[in-house]
Amino acid sequence: MEQYKQDFIQFMVDCDVLRFGEFTLKSGRKSPFYMNAGLYVTGGQLEKLGQFYAKAIHDNYGDDFDVLFGPAYKGIPLSVATTMAYHTLYGKQIRYCSNRKEIKDHGDAGILLGGPIKENDKIVIIEDVTTSGKSIEETFPIINAYKNVTIKGLMVSLNRMERGKGDKSALCEIKEKYGFDANAIVTMEEVVEYLYNKEYNGRIVINDEIKAALDKYYKEYGVKIAE
Description:
alpha/beta; two-stranded antiparallel sheet; 10 strands; 39% helix; 25% strand; globular
């Protein structure tokens, strides 16, 4: 496992963004873990988060893209932090762009904020986590309305590795439906591999009890990466 992935898993635990217990998801599923990216709130946390995203995007999509698109609302700070980090780490100027939930009819009018999407742009979409693909359903037509744009892929922070609307993961469903790649900084398989029965900051984050709950959950809802 790459060092930045190990560091990112530690970062999620340190920020209390990744939690283990019992949580009810929007889908109604009872999950033994929950990731809340809304808990990245400080300048230092966002700076580090942007660096992790930038490294993962560079690993998966390289430098050949022009725009980082963050769907409203959580995607907005993610796209800003990551464009800054990408410039710092790789020396390339990437424009950030996001959609508005409501079209603005005065001043900087329109549905987009940030850098404009231009003809022939290559775009990477950035999100926190994807379970249903709803935000992609909303933003894909907005991006695709511009001439000759190419969506190179989607980057999320965590691949939950569970079924979306059908029998495949949400990331696989997005890839099949829209025709672009979808990746994550880390997968839950990597998280479990790294944290299971290992002491971190004086405690075992994933003990035998939590591991058993995860195994049970994935037996019912899990999918394999190589679908």
